[in-house]
Amino acid sequence: MVDLGPWLSNKCAGLPEQRAMIDTTGLGSGFAAENLPPPGGVYWHAGVPFRVPDFHGQADNLLLEGATVAVPRGPCQALHFWGFADWGLVEARLALVFAGGARRVAGLEFSSWTAAGPSCRGERLGPQSRIVRTRSRDVSLVVNSYVQTVAVAGEDDLVAIEFDDAPVVHILALTLGRPAGGEGGPTS
After folding, report:
1. Where are the domains of the chain?
2. CATH topology of domain 5-177
3. What are the pLDDT digits (tens) for 97-132?
4. List of E strands, 7-77
5. pLDDT mean across residues, the chain
6. What's the sign of the alpha-carbon dihedral 14, 163, 176, 8?
7. Distance of alpha carbon 83 from alpha carbon 176, whole angstroms
8. pLDDT digits over 39-93, tens only?
9. Whole-prediction pTM value?
């Protein structure tokens, strides 16, 4: 599980008293924190652990705006993302950076948090909220987060991920899929 703390830049969920801080879409709305996994814990999805961000704190997600995220160096077979898009079906570009200097471009697709369910290739439904928290009130509406996996192929150890500028994609958590017997086990 990658610590995204230094790169968190947006607040997508909160408690009723935090409604003024929530701004998932630029319109001042987001998930009701009490409908999501408890902050600081681990959310498991199909055998993959994700570190749950602090939905009760300040920023709780990485808004893709050109960030470069350093990852624990090591062999990597897959990147497991927990996130969502503001609207539509969005594909963001990632540059996978390897220790030997090699780079590989990959795509990451997410559906809108307001979509009826997963719409992108390989996407799986993650935690849902039955409330949209706006600046003025709570609205009864089911909204979704998703889990998406990106395959990694490289001869050297993965050291960083460079995200393009796709400010409608939100990453809540990232877990590296390590080879069996690798450092940190099959996921870290």
Report:
1. 5-177
2. Jelly Rolls (2.60.120)
3. 999 889 999 999 999 999 998 988 899 999 999 999
4. 13-14, 29-32, 42-45, 48-51, 62-65, 68-74
5. 90
6. negative
7. 15
8. 989 999 999 999 999 999 889 999 888 899 999 998 999 999 999 999 888 889 9
9. 0.92
Q: Are 75 and 158 in contact (CB under 8 A)?
A: yes
Mean pLDDT in residue range 179-184: 59
First to last CA, the chain: 4
Q: 122-130 — which CB contacts under 8 Å span 24+ positions? A: 122/148, 122/149, 123/147, 123/148, 124/45, 124/46, 124/148, 126/43, 126/45, 126/82, 126/84, 127/35, 127/36, 127/37, 127/43, 128/35, 129/13, 129/31, 129/32, 129/35, 129/36, 130/32, 130/35
3-state secondary structure of 176: strand
Give yes or no for a contact between 44 and 28, defined as CB atoms under 8 angstroms apart: no
For tokens 């220790």, name the residue: 99
Amino acid type, 154: G
